[in-house]
Amino acid sequence: MEKQPSFKPSSSLPILSAQDLDSLLDDFSSGDPSRRRKHLSLPLLDLSLHSLSRRDLPSSLKLNLLHFVEQHLPSILLPSPPFPSLLSALRYFLPSPDPSPLKEQLLITTTSIFISLLQSPSSPHLQSLTELLLTLINRPNHGPDRQTRGLACESLRELESTFPCLLSEILGHVWLLAQAERTHVAQSYILLLAQVSRNVVVNGLLSSSSSILSTSTQLTPFTIPQIALSDQRVVLSPPSDVNLREIRRVLAFLLDRPRDLTPGAISELTSALVDISGALEECVPAVSALLKVNFSSLLSCHNLLLDHSILSLYHHFSDAFNEDAISNVAHRLQLLATDTGQRLIFRLLALHWLFGSTLLARHVISATSLLGFYPQVFDPLAVKAKKLDAISVIASERDEAVNLLEDGLVCVSSFRWLPGWSTETGVAFRAMHKLLIGIMPHDGSDYGPGRAGLGSIMESTTFTALENMLVNLALEHHVLVPVIATFISRLLQCETHSAIGDRFLQTLDRRLIPNLKPGYGLSFYFPLLEKIAENETVTPKGVLELLKRHMLCLTDKHGPDTGLRSWSQGSRVLGICRVVLKHHNGSQVFSPLSRLLSFTCQNFPDLEIRDNARIYLRMLACIPGKKLRQALCTGKKSGLAPAPLPASLIDVPSPHPSLDQKKSTGIASYIHIERVTPPLVKQSWFLSIPGSVRALSNGSGSVGGAIMDIAASAAPLSDPDKSDKSDKTDFSKTIYQNEAFRVVDPKTGDLLRVLRTHFGCIPDYRVLPGIKIRIPCTLRFESDPFTRTWGSESYDEQSIPALYATKITFSSFSKYGKIPPCRVPFLLGESLKPDLALVPLDQENNENTHHSDFAKFLIELQPEDPMPGLIDILIKANTATGQVVSGSLRPVTVGIEDMFLKAILPPNVSDERIPQYNADLFDALWEACGSSASTGRETFPLNGGKGVAAINGTQSVKLLEVPEDALINAVERHLAGFVVRVAGGPLVRVIRQNRVIENVVWDEKEEDKEEGGIDVDASRNEFSAEKALVAYSGEKSGLEIQFTQTEMEKNNNCRSLVSIGKGNNMGTFCVLVFLPPRYHLLFMMEIGYTSTMVRIRTDHWPCLAYVDEYLEALL
């Protein structure tokens, strides 16, 4: 008989009273680091575990100690792993025959800590824990410890879920135990059997020739199987006949047990059976029908977990459900959604399930009774919104249900008189938008501008009813006009629904504007009038005539009591006139617009409005259309800015002197702006490109292939009035109209397609907002020198000074665009400390202790040329005494690494395809930037439709003589986000083990697995030996570096991490860096054991001047 393990406290452990233990738990639960720090010197784990055996402590305190160990163990610095102590405690308490909450909680805590801290199943402690749990469950139908056996089964199930195939070799024993158990804990045995069976099936173990239910392997002593220790799973292959029969026996047993399980357990069992059946569907086609037959009766149990189980089966095996089964599922969900006795979240979930499935939604749409979806009076607003969404979907599919939406909106009829920002208004217009999406879905291939389906949609009764609803709302409730304008703007911004937005504006111009009356109330409709004037498909003659009558009305009503109303409304009218000039040809609007402006400049009572109208009239008469639009587009805001008030009304003399130039000269010595992350390269020089070199870049001022204007090379100048048609030119024809027809091979065609997709996502910073980089910085100032400089006689020298209303402005000679200023409302100075202040040793290197008073802000740059530079800083602030602190501070350095961004992803790339897309983009750019590039004179249009870019690549090499572990650490620390591919078996295994670089393409070939070497594709390593800066051998992918005996001995520890084969390289990193606004920097790092060859390619040659220092600074 095995001896009971001893669990006596060590003599070195302190004995704490119950009050001391309560104080320890309170200190850790408070979240205050200072209260926790005083207990970290104690052996907390051993102290907590040995306190469990003390009889003078209450049971509630012992349970709290176990919760404390489970919650705070990761934050406690332990001198040794906690697994031996936990196993000793478990062996001490488990043999007790009496059930106790302490024993069960100890079992849960131990399993949770093992799962949280163990990184791989190769630990011997995991084997000991599994063996202990298997010994515990190997007593079926033993009554006194049935609760403990159930928890042991749940612990084994969690271990099997965390470490798949851990129990795969003892599946036969688990099956026998599940069959033998007759108590209520049979549920835990069944779920354990389902989890182990799922991992066996999913990981392809059915193809083995031996039976999976074999009991030849002993249950105890337990040994972790090799399949659980290896990272690679068996390739899925057809199951053997023996195992197919065995797994069908297990499935039959599991399908017969749902009646003995709780709803939560049935949901877990259904999830496992779905995975098993999905893997066996090809071999056993009838398995899905068996699932439906055994679980379809659960739909009448009125339990949400069971409903979710049925829906999961329907989602994965919809072919097994006939029309009656689908009808039953839809009817059950409809009843659940309309049951007012259900909780809100359940009703919303039922509606979400119902309309989340296409077949279920179509069944509801085809049904005759729709009364259940009408919102009730006392329904919560969330249910009303969801039901209105359902009604919108139904109305879009049924032509006879035109009035469904109007009847449904009765429940939120208060939106007609509530403010536009009310929730009811948002719900109503959301329903209208859902109706439009139902009529014309975003992914519908049969709809779109210029296609046959669009005309029939706009002539349908549903669309006509929606038009009437918008017109009536605009006429009767002017408060909703801004909401209608926003609704139409959203449609215009969508590519699919832009035609609907144009149609709405045409309807409003035809039916709304004739019914509007001039007067002060017309100002409510200015947002809609501006939208109509901005749209090119609507002739703004009606708008201009209405505005002319409105200006006449304002002139007649002007009097001494008018105030600023005439000026305000006149300014907004001129703003609409400016919009008309920007978006319409002058010949089309000349007559009505000239009459409006002529009347305004002659008769309007406000002098400023008359002057501005006269300027617009002269511009309309004298400046051609294209030049006029260019002149008006200089300002981004439509309308005229209000005139500033006279200076005498706002200038109040300050009682203190505003600015002292002598005091402001040395502020850089005590006011500091520092980067949060210092640059890697301490740059002391910057590359300056002469003007003659810039002139070679198509006159753009950028280097390395600038953005070229399409219109500049497309066609000669045309008539100014017809110049607006150039915006609608087919750019794909314009770019190549002067070039010969080119025939390319399929490989080059794929390369060009990837590059066009990539460059099509890059915004043209000349017409669209450019890509910005952000540099986090901090602002602080020293209190002592600041007080000596800016203090006064009434100023307390012991108080902490402060800066108020600080404004920081930036400027730079580098091409970073306009840098927006930053503002800091309030900032305290650093605390005044004596020169001989005692600083705690553990706070000596703490940055927050040394600089506790600082303000954080971001410097936003929009680089037009990705080059390092300096940002000059000018600060202006107020002191507590009213003085103005102004002056220049030390400049902030912008490094080359600040320009590093990830490549822009197209919107249609899913998360699973991102690694492969980045790898394909790297290959395309690497080929395009090479010396043998096949892209030729190819140009790529940018996002914005105004410019194109060409790739002029260059290349270089850099030899880094460092060990591979140092280089791998540097890449993981600084370039992990930019790595797109890791090639080579040894390198892949090291990187995967580190778990820093993820979501990349792993290129691990069979030769690498067997030999430890790497064979990188020759096309990716193509590089001209004559152009290389360092000579290298072309026969092998890496450098031939001879190791001395001393070096070989020195690197034995590093070489033990990977298997060394015939090759001299571990593998290759492929790094893709995007340099705004449109350039790229590519690294191919061939990792050697003592040196690394970095091959560099880029389409921006000036950045090569900084790459060498950056690569050296990485190490």
Automatic annotation (TrEMBL):
GO cellular component entries: AP-type membrane coat adaptor complex
Domain AP5B1 middle: 462-628
Boundaries of every AP5B1 C-terminal domain copy: 1066-1113
Pfam families: AP5B1_C, AP5B1_middle
InterPro entries named in the record: AP5B1, AP5B1_C, AP5B1_middle
Any GO BP: endosomal transport
Full protein name: AP-5 complex subunit beta-1
Organism of derivation: Carex littledalei
